[in-house]
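User: Sequence in, structure out. Go.
Assistant: Echoing your sequence, followed by the structure tokens.
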Amino acid sequence: MKHSLLDWADRVSTRLDNFCRTMGAVFLGLIVLAASVQVAGRYFMGYSPPWIEEITRYSFIWMIMLGTAVLVKSNGHAVIDLLVMRLKGRARRGHGYMVQISILTCALVLLVQGLQLIAIVYQQSSPALRISMAYVYAALPLGGAMIAVQCVNALLDGYRDQPSPAMEGA
């Protein structure tokens, strides 16, 4: 039973990671396309529509939030490992748990505060695209939720890989 739940969590985490990678690539492609159109418009026509800048900015926000979840899954976030490299065994594992719990706490704050922000700005429209700013700010709670899922999975992976108490003394 224990391993089936852990395996399920790992499958959910992997699918979520694949989704974030795919959507991040889509947003990156949209940024490149929009920036290229903006540069070409300025160069050839002397004018660039203002909505292109908004598409670029909003795509960048979404790409960052999705990319953060990918980095948490792959343990690729920025770290200063001067201390960690000196730790061994339980101390190193405990440090890893503390890092994941800290990231999880920030992700939950992002989730809750992002939902509150959406409730405030849902009637506000963007200046050029005229879309609800709720779509833009939805990146915060959605990114927070995805980061939280990846943190929980990392904590479960640590539980899965933890040696039994009988083996730790040997």
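User: And one key feature?
Assistant: The helical segments are 2-45, 50-73, 89-121, 133-137, 139-161, 165-168.
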